[in-house]
Amino acid sequence: MTIEQRFIACDGKEFKTEEECVKYETFNKLKDIIPTLKTVQEICNKYHHCHECVFYNDSSGDCILREELPERWDLERISIKNEI
Question: N or C: which end of the chain has fewer CB within 10 A?
Answer without folding.
Answer: N
